[in-house]
Amino acid sequence: VVGAAALTIAIALESAMAMPQFLQELPNGSLFKQDLGHPGDDSSQLTDFAEDFDSAGQSWTKSFLCEAKFPGSSMTNGAAFGDPCCTWKKGGKPDFTVTAFTTTPGKATTCAAKGGASSTSSAAGTSSGADDATKGASDATKG
């Protein structure tokens, strides 16, 4: 019985410790909470985005995660998380700072033709926690 209790505590502790670790793998990840990956903060279930993230090796990849569509949205994950050009590297600053959301991003960030971030644009649908994205970088200095 003691062994089972210790295992339960260890699993719960690992789940609590892992969530912030996973968020560090996303642009603007520090702005988000557990419900991005677990519906209703239920760590026994995964959201569609969390399943995609897991399939991408739990890291931000250009072709498999950044350029993929955010589940239930018309925008890419990169546009939703403030990395529309898919150039963000772990530990770096994303092109834009976005408002945290849970199921549907409110606005998409866009990539300028020359490879720099340029602006935000409205996205279809509603947001569960975000109504807009704010620029984290100046248009004039990107490129």
From TrEMBL:
Keywords, comma-separated and alphabetical: Signal
N-terminal signal peptide: 1-18
Pfam families found in the cross-reference section: Temptin_C
Sequence ranges assigned to domain Temptin Cys/Cys disulfide in this UniProt record: 17-106
Signal in keyword set: yes
Biased composition (Low complexity): 110-131
InterPro entries, per the entry: S-S_Temptin, Temptin-like
Region (Disordered): 110-143
PANTHER family: EF-HAND DOMAIN-CONTAINING PROTEIN
The name this protein goes by in its record: Temptin Cys/Cys disulfide domain-containing protein
Organism encoding this protein: Phytophthora sojae (strain P6497)
